[in-house]
Structure formats: C-alpha cells, structure tokens
Design brief:
CATH class of the largest domain: Alpha Beta
Strand content: 15-25%
Radius of gyration: 22 Å
Number of strands: 19
Largest sheet: 9 strands, mixed
Helix content: 25-40%
Number of helices: 13
Number of domains: 3
Strand order of the largest sheet: 7-5-2-9-1-10-14-18-19
C-alpha cells in the first residue's frame, strides 16, 4: 500500500498539476481533499491543455478513480462545466468520479459578500479571488453551511436556503448590494444537482477499502503551504488547511497511513495578490522571470509577483509537512540568467531569524540573506537526464537540496508531461 501526498511548498502556482499528472499514472485513486475553485492546476498532456479547478488531475490516467472529499468546497457551476469539458474530450467519468455529499456548496451570496467585503476594506483588502471561498468556510464553521447532502432533499434545501437568505440579504443590502432571489437560486442548484447526482457518493469507504487492499492513493494538494490558514502569511491566506496532516479531517484517512510526501517547489518564487514576499523583485530580473515563466494565474489571470528562490520558506515547508522528496519545477525559466540568487535565510536587526518567529508584518521588516550563483546561460528545455544538465544547473539544484534539507527527486524542464527528470 502506498499513500502519497503532493503539497505546494510556496504560495501556490508551483506546478503541482504536472507532478500529479505524472504520479497519477502509477496510482489507483487520486484525491482532492481541500480548498475550492480558487486553486487551479494546468495539465498539459497528449490530450491537450486542461485548466482544472475542482476535478483531480488524475482523471487523465484512465484506470484511476478520482475523489473529491469532504474538505473541498464546491462551486457547482464550475464543477458541472469541468465535467462537460472532460466528457467532450472523451473521458469517461461514470464509475470513476466520486464526490462526498459532505462537501459544502458555494452559494451566490458567498461570492457577492466576498466582493463587498473587499470593497469595504478599501486599501486594507485581502486580495481574495472573489470566488466566495472564505465565506463558505466561515459558514461551515459557524453552522450556517449548506452541503450536497441538503440537495438530496428538496424541502430541506429550501428551508436552509430561506434561513440563510434572511441573514445574508440583510448584510448584502447593508453593504450596498442587491438582495438575492430564492426561487432563482433553487431552480439553478436543483438543475446542477441533476447533472451531478450520478457522481455523489461518499468516497471514505472506497478509500478505506483501498488501504486494506494495498492500493496506491495519491492526495492532491490544491494550494501552497504559505497560504495555510494557520501557518501561512495570515491574513493573506486561504480558508482551508493546506498541510499534509490535513488529509485526516478533510478525507477521513489517518495521517499515519502516509508513506510519501512530495513538496512541489518552483526554481524561483511567485505570489499572486497581496501579502508578504521577502524575495520579491521589482527590477528587470523580476520582469524576466514573469515573462520567461509566463507567470499569470490559472484561476485569476492576474500577473504573479516574482522573486528569487526562498530557502527559508521551503525549509520550513519541508519541516512542517515531513517532505520525503521535492519536485523542482520551471528550472528552464532560469536558463537566460548570468547570475542567480538564492535566499538562504532572514536577518532582522543584524540577527538571524526564522520564518516562524513572526507574522506577516514581521516578514515585511526582515532582510533576506542571499547566495549568488553563476547561471548556465544555455537551454535546459526538455532535458530528461540529470547528467545532461549544465554543470551550473546541477550545482544550483544541489544547493537547493543542501539549504532546505530534502532531496530533489523530480526536475521539470518544461510544461509537458515528458519534460521531466526523474532521479
């Protein structure tokens, strides 16, 4: 039996989709266990290019069953659209896609409130994706959530929706928005339910049986470690638990069953939206990283902020998640640089400090300590043999391993599935 968890090691956008796509070829189950459609994985394979936000990337391995467990919050419109996209591309989902009825649903008022709250905050806005994620999780923990379970009973759904609209419409109107019509929401969601009903089945017993039968299960992380609600750069984070141990509460599978934890890390650092970013670049190097890496969000389309590799962050990610190996992505983006910097740690008032010593405000004050390395100035695009990499590229990878304390087992040299070095 093998349970592998794949987690992003920075602020997301590390290239998890590609690594999951590759590893899923050896899996029996691929499981999405947290987050919502505020996360996006772009998969490029022989079938085409697919931006997915809810359906696990393992869907492209045709023998694999994919599960969306209770820790995920669902935008039913997005989910239905993804199912239709995959069906059109020739993929069979019946008997392969299992969605927990315990998943909470994103209702129209969650999205409206998300935007109204951001507007009300003004310059202090968090920089959310506007998809209602934080608000649906807030409803979940304050006992105001509506789950897929509720759509199984039309009367029950209507009653719960009435209660929530009585509350939410008052807040929406107080913030200058238009109230939501109950009938329209009911009709829309019952239509979605009819399309989703064949896939709604609790995955827990399937995964439990898979463990007993020594099957291979791959857990697909949706965000980066530093967007975790507790350990990330709060409040510029997501609403869910991102860490590897989150599979217990978010899927029912005991954390002790995990055998491998793969941290996906970009060869440099990016971030979308606001929040602390110690190694961010505002010069030509930052613009070159953005251009060469095509750094624009899968979900939002927003330009990503870019900076040098931050070993202090990744070192912490290795420690808290128990990474057994790393997947280093976008190495080829660094091909044009004559010099490459790597942040080895932080200083504050001339004293060495750690990421976990402070909060987001603290991170705005620290000074990154850099090690400058010589670039390789030649293409690594598509290389699949570690020994064929330029000497300086191999030295850079070895320095990353030394600084963060985990071996680099996979090196991505391009977006396609086959553009990968396996060590």
């Amino acid at each position: 039996m093998s349970i592998t968890v794949v987690i992003g090691s920075q602020w997301g956008d590390e290239g998890k989709g590609k690594i999951i796509d590759v590893l899923s070829l050896m899996a029996d189950f691929v499981v999405r266990f947290h987050g919502g459609n505020n996360a996006g994985h772009t998969v490029v394979n022989q079938y085409g290019k697919f931006p997915l936000h809810l359906i696990p990337c393992g869907i492209f391995a045709k023998k694999v069953k994919v599960c969306i467990t209770n820790g995920v919050v669902l935008d039913l419109e997005v989910l239905v659209a993804e199912i239709e996209l995959l069906k059109k591309a020739g993929f069979t989902l019946e008997g392969r896609l299992f969605i927990s009825p315990r998943c909470h649903m994103i209702l129209p008022y969650h999205k409206i409130l998300d935007k109204l709250y951001e507007e009300a905050k003004g310059k202090a806005k968090t920089g959310t994706t506007g998809r209602g994620i934080g608000h649906v999780y807030a409803d979940k923990v304050s006992y105001n959530g509506i789950r897929l379970f509720d759509l199984l009973n039309t009367a029950q759904f209507g009653e719960k929706l009435t209660i929530q609209l009585n509350i939410k419409n008052k807040i929406i109107q107080a913030l200058g928005g238009e109230p939501i019509d109950k009938k329209e929401v009911e009709e829309t969601f019952l239509e979605y339910f009819q399309k989703l009903e064949p896939y709604i089945k609790e995955p827990y017993p399937l995964l439990l049986q898979a463990i007993k039968e020594n099957r291979s299960i791959l857990f697909e992380g949706a965000h980066g470690v530093f967007l975790d609600n507790d350990w990330g750069t709060y409040p510029f984070v997501t609403a869910s638990t991102v860490l590897s141990g989150g599979i217990n509460a978010s899927s029912g599978i005991p954390a002790k069953e995990i055998k491998e934890v793969v941290g996906v890390v970009k060869a440099y650092t990016t971030r979308v939206g606001t929040g602390s970013f110690p190694t961010e670049l505002f010069d030509d190097d930052g613009e070159a990283l953005r251009k060469e890496g095509n750094e624009f969000g899968t979900t939002t389309g927003r330009a990503r902020r870019c900076g040098w590799f931050d070993a202090e962050l990744v070192r912490f990610a290795v420690q808290i998640n128990g990474f057994t190996k790393l997947a280093l992505t976008k190495l080829d983006v660094l091909d044009t640089f004559s010099e490459i910097k790597l942040c080895t740690g932080y200083e504050l008032n001339n004293k060495r400090v750690n990421y976990y010593d402070g909060d987001a405000v603290f991170l705005e004050k620290i000074k990154p300590v850099y090690k400058t390395m010589k670039g390789w100035k030649r293409s690594t695009r598509g290389i699949t043999d570690f020994e064929k990499l330029p000497l300086q590229a191999k030295q850079y990878i070895k320095e990353v391993e030394k600084q963060v304390g985990a071996p680099v087992a996979y090196i991505s040299t391009g977006p396609a599935r086959e553009e990968l070095i396996v060590r």
